């Protein structure tokens, strides 16, 4: 609506899901039982769940209608053709290969193009992407621009690839790089966008070295919206056309429909190369299913097909990006240190700055994350030395940053929920100097953040 300052949720609510209030005493008991690990909580003991934006979005009435329409034929279902057409209208790659989620697409692609001695280059590999690259024996290199690693930098496209280092890496590893990836938006870097200009630069370098370019496109619509808002000359364009421009620069993509598919499950791999598609489909049949459903039910294909139409709607994207920025604005106004600028899907609290008295290996992020739950039933996610501090040889080293991520599920929470979250953060920040660190009591050898148990330090 022109002429108004308030950006409203562009939907009304027709089906509600109650959330449960708990007392501090209950939350203390639940947290103790969970070994002070927020992944160990039952989600109905959480009031506002900001653990992740993956698969946690609300579907529209049209998506639910699609769930009913879903055709469960094993081969050649009309739901498959709708799914394929909706993808190709944004990403006109020759071959679309459906998978049950993003990492299944990664697993198949890297099984074919990876292997010992190979090198995959990305602005920043997402953790499952890196894991799937390394599982094949290949190595994964991150080449985001230097600003992308500085939390206080307000560069408008902090997800951009460092073109100079890309060229140097392709020269050094010539003949061993089967693909360059660009992750849009750069999830591990805080949901930061990549500009069209940068993508064109990456494409030109890939062309010179004859290396294909892939998009890890999980948040493609949020990235396209930020291009529209921030990149010179893009402000009047339809987001769909910006998405098509991004697609036209690439040779293929991997996708998790749990993000900008606006669905609760799903993903795909898309490529132009016929021979690559043939080899990926062979693996698909082995691990996911027949090529017209992959790892998905017909109803999931319908939900994603409709989700892709809704996610590029300007009113939706304006609301989506603004509602994340709104939380960031409130926290900044309270003087709470956050990662700048606020990205598309999450706000990151800087726990090291909030708790300088807690040593990195006493996990300041864990202290802040558990305090948010104790204070107001808000669940965020530690992204710091708990998640990244364990080295393959079993020793510990502090992570570069100690953050708590508050990821915003799509179309789920209202502005008053977000106001409440900001109030909880404020209360925790006011007494952050009293928070205590943790020690790890037990933990698995890898990906310890999911199952480690903690004890508060005296
Ligand atoms: C979520 C995500 C993935 C993996 O997708 P899943 O559906 O969780 O398997 C890959 N890359 C990025 C950037 C992601 O955000």
What does this structure look like?
With 458 residues, the protein is of the alpha/beta class. It folds into 2 domains: 24-53 and 313-456, Alpha-Beta Complex (Aspartate Aminotransferase, domain 1), CATH 3.90.1150; 61-310, Type I PLP-dependent aspartate aminotransferase-like (Major domain) (Aspartate Aminotransferase, domain 2, 3-Layer(aba) Sandwich). 40% of the residues lie in helices and 13% in strands. It contains 16 helices and 14 strands. It has helices at residues 24-33, 61-69, 78-90, 102-113, 127-135, 163-172, 196-209, 220-230, 239-248, 274-287, 298-311, 314-333, 351-354, 364-376, 385-388, 415-430; strands spanning 48-49, 95-99, 119-122, 139-142, 179-183, 213-216, 252-256, 267-271, 346-350, 378-379, 381-383, 403-407, 438-442, 453-456. The protein has a 7-stranded mixed β-sheet with strand order 2-8-7-6-5-3-4, sandwiched between helices. A 3-stranded antiparallel β-sheet has the order 9-12-11. Helix 7 links the parallel strand 5 (179-183) and strand 6 (213-216). Helix 1 crosses helix 14 and helix 3 (78-90) packs parallel to helix 11 (298-311). Bound molecules: pyridoxal-5'-phosphate. The site of pyridoxal-5'-phosphate has 15 residues, from helix 4 and helix 5. Pyridoxal-5'-phosphate binds next to helix 4 and helix 5.
